[in-house]
Amino acid sequence: MTFNAAISGSTATITVTTTANSTTLRVPNATALGDQLAAIATNPSAAPVDQTPDYLVYPTDNGVRVTSGPGHVDIPWRWVMPIASQLNA
C-alpha cells in the first residue's frame, strides 16, 4: 500500500494505491491540510480539525482519518508526515 498527495490551487488530492486498486480523495479548500496533518502527527491528542463543510481531520487508533464529502481515507501513522510533507512541498 502506498500513499501520495498533491495540492493544486486550494484542492488537495490523497491517493491510496494497493495491489488491487487505487482510490483518490479530493479535499477542497485544503491549503492548510499539510500543516494540520503534521500538527496531529506530533500531538495526537490535539483537537480534530473541523473545516466543515469541506473536510474533517482527526486521529484514530491507527493513524489519521481525512473525511471530505461522502468519502474518507485512513492514513496510517507512518504515512502521516510523508503526506504532510508532500502537501507542503
Rg to the nearest angstrom? 12 Å
The largest sheet has its strands arranged as 4-5-6-7
Strand tally, please? Answer: 7
Query: How far do the termini sit from each other?
Result: 22 Å
Tally of separate helices: 2
- List the helices and strands in order: EEEHEEEEH
Helix content: 10-25%
What does the overall shape look like?
globular
Total domains: 1
- Uncertain runs are none
Strand content: 35-45%
Q: What structural class results from the helix and strand content?
A: alpha+beta
Main beta sheet strand tally, sense and closure: 4 strands, antiparallel
Write structural notes for this entry.
This protein is of the alpha+beta class and 89 residues long. It has one domain (2-88). It contains 2 helices and 7 strands. It has helices spanning 33-42, 77-88; strands spanning 2-8, 11-17, 22-27, 49-51, 55-59, 63-68, 71-76. Strand 5 and strand 6 (63-68) form a beta hairpin. Helix 1 packs antiparallel against helix 2 (77-88). It starts with a strand and ends with a helix. The mean pLDDT is 93.
